[in-house]
Amino acid sequence: MQKINLTGLSPEQIEYVSTLEKVVENQQIRINQLTELLIKSQKALYGQSSEKRRYVLGEDNCQISLFNEAEVEANNKAEEPTVQTIVAAHTRKPKRTREELAQTVPVVEVVCDLDEDKRSCVICQADLRYLGKEHVRDELEIIPAQVRVLRYIRFNYVCTVCEKETGDANIVKAPVPAPVMKRSLASPSTVAYVMYQKYANGMPLYRQEKDWANQGVTLSRATLANWIIRPSHEWLEPMYNTIQKHLIGEPLIHADETVLQVLKEPGRKATTESRMWVYTSGRSPTPAVLFEYQPTRSGQHARRFLEGFSGYLQTDYSDKKVIMIFYEFSIESYDLEA
After folding, report:
1. Which of 160, 151, 158, 206 is nearest to 179 (CA)?
2. Residue-wise DSSP of 59-116
3. Between the CA atoms of 215, 217, 219 and 224, what dihedral angle is there, to the nearest 10 degrees?
4. pLDDT higher than threshold 60 for residue 313
5. What are the two backbone dihedrals, phi and then psi, of residue 276, each rounded to the nearest 5 degrees?
6. pTM
7. What residue segments make up the domains of the chain, in order of their start?
8. Of 4-18, 104-118, 122-136, 313-327, where does mean pLDDT reach its minimum?
9. Phi and psi at residue 6, in whole multiples of 5°?
10. Helices (H) and strands (E) in the chain, counts
11. How far apart are CA 299 and CA 64, in angstroms?
12. Mean pLDDT of 178-206
């Protein structure tokens, strides 16, 4: 900003001009901040990345580039993990035996031996006697995912005696395992893999589509979506209902709900807050945990989910700091601050 020439002005005028300059300077700073925020918002709205929150809100000022992440994160002084720390980092035992490790991670011995023509002494040419073996080192190996086609071949048999006596062939066919999806190439392992990548590793279907293509298999996002939805309705939903019936029979249930945003939900804006409800049993020989999506936090959702429940339901309501206990759906509230 260009400075104003104050020569010949009275002290009152100089003070007034200085005040105006400070106001203009503060406004310019605010304009620059808003301009920067607008640029970030435009990049987040029209850019290629869908993970925009930390970039837009400025929560991550040290954002790492995709291409130099390895160089930035590299640390020569970082301690190398051992087999014990990888397999059982949650335990406090300083060392585990190989038998204990074999229960979780298989151990394959790589035998390094001398060729038969080299089992002689280089000094006197006498035959060498076996002395023993030593443990040199351990390495953690990963086997990449492999794709193959399982082709089910069924054997059929016929009774020759019945065929001779009656003229009718008594054919017996070998049993075949039921498919996870009828008229589909999906196997239980592929369905589980797609679900695991999607919900445990957070990998969107368009990335999974490219990953399958890299392995030589062309699968569309629609196909992958079907592999999630259809088995969920046909196999997981009955299991969900069975667990719910078991949960309703428990004497104590804990419940809570948390905010969830759903994009492209019919009839609702993307900014509308939805809720994910969770119900879990207390101390039980067969513990159970169930999640249920609902568009609101209305208590009617809990009443519908827990229909037929006769016990204690404990949940915290952090806004009012109360614990609400439902016994046969008669509600008592206890103020924690009282």
Report:
1. 151
2. --TTPPPSSSHHHHH--TTSPPP-HHHHH-TT---S---HHHHHTTS----------G
3. -60
4. yes
5. -115, 115
6. 0.59
7. 1-76, 79-143, 156-238, 249-335
8. 313-327
9. -95, 10
10. 11, 8
11. 43
12. 92
